[in-house]
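Q: Joint fold for the lines below.
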Amino acid sequence: MPKLKTEEIQVNFGPQHPSMHGVLYLRVTLDGEVMTDIDPVIGYLHRSMEKIFEYRTYAQCISIIDRADYMSAYFNEMAFVQSVEKLMAIDVPQRAEYLRVILMELNRIQNHALLYGTLGMDLGAITPVFYGQREREKIFDLFELAAGYRMHPNYFRVGGVKEDVPEEFLTGTAKFCDDFAGWLEEYNTLLTGNEIFHVRTRGVGKIDPNWAINSGITGPLLRASGFKWDLRKNDPYSVYDQFDFEIPVGTQGDVFDAYWIRMAEMEQSLRIVKQALSKLPDGPVKAKVPLNVRPPKGEAYARIESPRGELAVYIVSDGSNKPYRAKVRAPSFLHIGCLPDMLRGHLVADVIALVGVIDIVMGEVDR
Amino acid sequence: MKPELVDKIIGRFPDVAHDISLDFNVFIAPKDDYLKLAEFLKSEPDLDFDNCSDLSGVDYLDYLEVVCHLYSYKLGHHLRLKARVTRGEPEISSLTSLWSTCNFHEREAWDLYGIVFTGHPDLRRILSDDDQPGHPYRKDVPLENDEAWLLRDEKTSADYGLPIGWERSADA
Amino acid sequence: MGDLSTIGLIALKGVLALAIGIANIVIFIYMERKVIADMQVRFGPMRVGPHGTLQPIADLIKILNKEDIIPAAADRWLFILAPGIAFVPAYMLYLTIPISQNLMVADLDLGIFYLFGIMTVVPVSVLVAGWASHSKYALLGGLRGAAQQISYEIPLLASILGVVMLTGSFSLVSIVKAQQLPLIKLGAFTILPRWYIFLQPFGFLFYFIAALADTQRTPFDIPEAESELVQGYNTEYSSIKFALFFLGEYSNALIISALSVIVFFGGWSGFGPIPGVVWFFLKTYAFVYFIIWLRSTLPRIRIDQLMDLGWKVLLPLTLVNVIVTGFLMIR
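A: Joint structure:
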């Protein structure tokens, strides 16, 4: 009996799509329900940020680089500012470092709460988004107290932060820390323990650690595959070596591990925030550096652990007050490059779950 | 990075220039040695650079530079590998066969700087328009377009024999 | 002459039944939005009418005002026919549901059989819609939806067979009347009536799961999975055709709730001075609330897991249920 000949069809996911995270265009070749090939097309959000950097002073660049990874703005600023501080060998005052850590960890919690909501939504659970959003609003209020803005704070400066935080920020953060454990419990009850969620996510899209290292996967995905690597512990920057926290590691690298690690990371971030609040020293919040910095000629590369992976900025300076070249190494850019190998042979519904859990933000992919 | 490892690299590849920049050892390799040096760095057990963190292009007006940051997860050291090409001869070997990270990074360097990576499986434009003439991040391209710039004559991907748009190379 | 007045009476009852059905759909739509909103810590519709009560009417007016587009490449007559195939059977079922002892349009001897027979026509509409739209998304959605619905028809019917065997009749009124007999008595006082939920608990469980899958409610709402295929088989539909699909779907969900009340929970029987009609609607809306609750909480099952559940789990289990029931009856 002759084998039934079926045709492969090509389906376009995006760039405008109810579930794609940003303007990502995936050209998927389907054989029935199974994917045989996938070709990501990016560049819809390309704003030539790095070229604009060459025409702006370092202080102006900070407000632009906020918009690269717009979900975790503080991390972008931190990578940039650290790179310049390395170049100029500036000593950042302790109070500024602690404030930076508090804000970055709050940003990490906010980011993972968003992932919780969107992953649920991709899989069909319509309620987690609202619960996650509730907590994010509280964090945004804290950001507004500190920096004046909710999403693109423009708060870090070369040598410290812009200004000291008001008292309400510290009391508000303390209150948030007390309440958060209860909310995390609610999140876990709703989605993490759900049988259908387990069936949809366990065993889907396993990642092998050696392949992950070679392909440039970093961050929670790398930890999900079983390789324990977190830049805050393995290559400490800022004041992270003074805090006591753990690194959750997965076993299989499937979607469930990547999701569960982020839930656990939220808890660890909360620990860091609490410790930082209790140890917050007094003092100046900015080193005596002019706003219009002129780094010496040279180049510097600083990398940090953002919620998505390893975020780094490579700065080449020619002695003037504008960068000669500022390149942003974005983790999501490489994760999209890994998508074809990760997704080949999976079903369409699994594609949605995997693309959701990789946590792509198109702002940093396209810059 | 330990000095004896630096000496080992220079001993093996005498044409490579060495420099120290802040906490990085910088190696500037000539075009012919670039791929061999990268293979050596990856395969040699004391060096074992298993991760290429970043690969970018930089435009110094006389030449274009490819800057590659290599890290080792197991041994904990890092270095910066550079190579130079000119606008007249922009070809250099691709490192995609060693680290898959370089796939998208090299596409970006081709798209924005015009550095042609020979041996890359699928060198297409990635961030700008598919049929864009010229390479936007080069220093002689102005930040904002004006009439004269828009009407200029530039080589496109087709002139280099590279695919445009969504067709891939024959051996992709 | 007598025939004409009988026909007139039946026609009047039919129109009334239809009107009640549509009114219930409107209440269902409003209830869904408010209940889901409440579970998501928000308010839901509040502006259109007091507390948003006129929202469904506003939605209807909006949908009817949209431009009715038929894609150029679509198969024109099939495209127009598909919503009709979805809508008409759903409303034909209203004619057979008895809401009280005396309030029904017709008490067919083949009650349940007729009901499921008509319900089986609905997957055809999904398939026709997906095919006629001439769009990849619609086709994929249509195939998935049709496969899902057809797979769950058999477990759905088989789970009710136990009840039919215990009653000895397909007629819905007889099923309810059989449930009004007492199960546990205390003198002349009935503590527990003979509701089939007590006699056929597994039958109810299977029925409920199969019914959710058949009417494409969460967690089985794959054909409408927004995050995957935009809108599934009705991607290309707009205006009144879209509205017809939606109304058909809500009507199905209401019918299965009403059916579960009639078959397993005693229909219109209750205690006290409250009339049977009220009991019937209370119980039906309790089920509707539960269905909405499931929608707001659970994620979606994947299509191949759904097929496994239907064929490898539910089908054998429902047949085992029938065999065991038969065995216990003979003994």
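Q: Anything notable?
A: The mean pLDDT of chain B is 83. The two ends of chain B are 37 Å apart (CA to CA).
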